[in-house]
Amino acid sequence: MVEEMWDQNSGHGNWNLNFLRDFNDWELGLVGDFLQILRSHKPSGEEDSILWKKGRRGQFRVKEAYNLLVRSDDIGFPSRSIWVTRVPTKVCFFAWEATWGRVLTLDRLQRRGLQLPNRCFLCGCEEESVNHILIHCTVVRVLWDIVFGLVDVKWVFPETVKEVLVSWRGSFVGKERKKIWDAIPLSIFWTVWKKRNRLAFRGGGGGVLNVQKLKNFFVCNLWSWAKLYVGEEAFSLIGFLEWLASP
Ligand SMILES: [Zn+2]
After folding, report:
1. What is the pTM of this model?
2. Fewest CB atoms within 10 Å of the CB: 15, 71, 132, 191?
3. Last residue of a domain, which of 71, 93, 114?
4. Would you give the distance in Å from CA 219 to the centre of its chain?
5. Where in this chain does the record put each Reverse transcriptase zinc-binding domain (predicted)?
6. Residues, beta carbon < 5 Å, ion ligand 1
7. pLDDT one-digit tens code per residue, 125-153
């Protein structure tokens, strides 16, 4: 309730906020903006009430809600993190499918009635699902760790691919590096999915995971895309990594 967050006793009154959890690094900008907006508002002392902002006079009406739904293209959908300029379309398309949970991972095949054991091809421990294989798998985390190690950021991972993409904001890396920053999740997804398929379909001898090679593939793949965006900093791989990590 708004009332409880407002401390009437301090001076002209003050916001006294309680947040339910700690913030991620990437959320700090948003929280800052939010607090700034809040500073210019004071509660009026009326009783709290629920208003529907999109409707006339704050009232919810089905017809208006319907029109909004038809018109809006779901602002919660991370289109901008998927259709990233100069990333190959097949890669963007894969991320798009993954966001919708349409990738044919073992859990989905099982749900379609196929009799299969479900074991992640990468870690060999957990069950395979799209969120596991692209975000939570210990093998995939090695790739995410490379990225966060470079920019020295700690990230509390969201649960789903969609949430990862929605919250992937590179505001702290600056405008120049943001172009390549936007491509990072796509490069990780693609690297992992290709590797997964190689392990899944070759089986046997081809089915040995070499994490070092996976890292190399990811970094080189990202570098090859970066060459399209970045100038002389990207001439060498080391130059590229240094540029990516520069504060
Ligand atoms: Zn796994």
Report:
1. 0.69
2. 71
3. 71
4. 19
5. 60-144
6. 120, 122-123, 126, 137
7. 999 999 999 999 999 999 999 999 988 88
